[in-house]
């Protein structure tokens, strides 16, 4: 569908406002029980009080929300993606600072994204193939990440596994191209980003946060995945 400028602005504002609530959300998170080697983790209460955090999260949410509007317009599934953008910005910030993805945010997201996806299905003339594909997206992406965790648990946190399923639902509803591109882009961006972080000594290459790259990869899948899928199958 052609870009809708009004949708771009509307979803940018909605996602920006929701993401700007991030400091409040972060401060209210319960502290996890950690291993002794992670005892130096910054407290969520302190993490949420950093100066200027609300507008930085809001700006990131607005940019990503605008991209959702540019791609989806007023398609009903955009509600699910705007929610994912807002919570994804918050999760990405937390993971970048703590290498943790709080279960308290991810588990409710399954219910919210599922309900919003069902609402999109009902509003979209009962597009059964889209709903089936969303369920398969959960199985495919969630199963793949679980397998990767089983094979090499040192290279991935279980929070990444939890996050993968909800991203799979949203990407799957958009299309197979979006799902597969989103999965691949996450690993590609993670590999490149991890190398850059290690090169500049920002993070250990074996212990850098992977969640932000998963989230960026999902956005890439939304924006260009189906177009890349059509291009590939045309050969």
Can you lay out the helices and strands and say which pair or pack?
Elements (H helix, E strand, L loop, with lengths): L4 H16 L1 H6 L16 H4 L5 H20 L5 H21 L4 H21 L4 H24 L6 H17 L1 H24 L11 H23 L2
How would you describe this protein?
By secondary structure, the chain is mainly alpha-helical. The protein has one domain (5-233). The chain contains 10 helices and no strands. It has helices spanning 5-20, 22-27, 44-47, 53-72, 78-98, 103-123, 128-151, 158-174, 176-199, 211-233. The longest helix is centred in the middle third of the chain and has 24 residues, at 128-151. The two termini are 23 Å apart. 44% of the residues are buried.
Outline of the structure:
The protein is an all-alpha fold and 235 residues long.
Structural class: mainly alpha
Biggest beta sheet attributes = none
Rg (C-alpha, Å): 17 Å
Number of self-contained structural domains: 1
What's the rounded overall pLDDT mean?
90
Shape: globular
How many helices in DSSP terms? 10
**What's the SSE pattern?**
HHHHHHHHHH
Helical content stands at over 70%
Number of strands: 0
Give the CA-CA distance, first to last residue.
Answer: 23 Å
Low-confidence stretches: none
- Report the portion of residues in β strands: under 5%
